[in-house]
Amino acid sequence: LRIRLARLAYYSEWPVFWKVLEDFLRWSCEKWKQDANSLSGQALDAILINAVIPENTDEASFALFDLEWSLATPMRKHWFVFRNIYALFRDAKFFAPDCGSANFAAMYERLCQVVGVAPVLDESLKLEAQFQVLATGQGEALTYITNLKGEMLNNFGQTFPRIPAHEAFDRDRFYQNLTDLALTKQHAQNLEQHNGDLRTALTQSQTHS
Fold this sequence. Notes:
- The protein starts with a helix and ends with a helix.
- Helices cover about 60% and strands about 5% of the residues.
- It contains seven helices and four strands.
- Helix 3 (about 75-85) packs across helix 4 (about 105-115), helix 3 crosses helix 5 (about 120-135) and helix 5 (about 120-135) crosses helix 6.
- It has helices at about 1-10, 15-30, 75-85, 105-115, 120-135, 140-155, 165-209, and strands at about 40, 50, 65, 75.
- It is mainly α.
- About 20% of the residues are buried.
């Protein structure tokens, strides 16, 4: 899911970007709901870097994988929102001033509103910093808080030239690649089915011979 969001950001497809991200957060908060402000502790690692959109579905549903970390106690919903934004930090260069939020902090406030929870950025930063120290065994929480807050408040800017003609070509090629990939997968499935039928026929032939 993160890769898809990064591509949407790169091509400035902001309406689709926001819909996919907001759909994921709503779906997650419903799936892991404990109460109005908390989620199951299992939601800790169930963020967008560990999620995919299943093929052949038009619904806002997602599949999760590689859920290594969880909490023994409920997770604050505002921290879950933060963790998903944190997963986008490495793609900050793709976010332009016209994306709909000035920076990740504004995005955090917007998404907290989407899932119906009050944004508490300082507490989210503190919880994430404590988790990073625990997970990595390195650094100090205060250093993490300072660095994370700097990333959150850094305004988005045009960090690389965007050439519309080149982007249109790349976008068309990207979607063509998706089509080709889908056709390849279907062809592979057909071959597997055909091979399975041949194996069954061969087995039956050997049985009757």
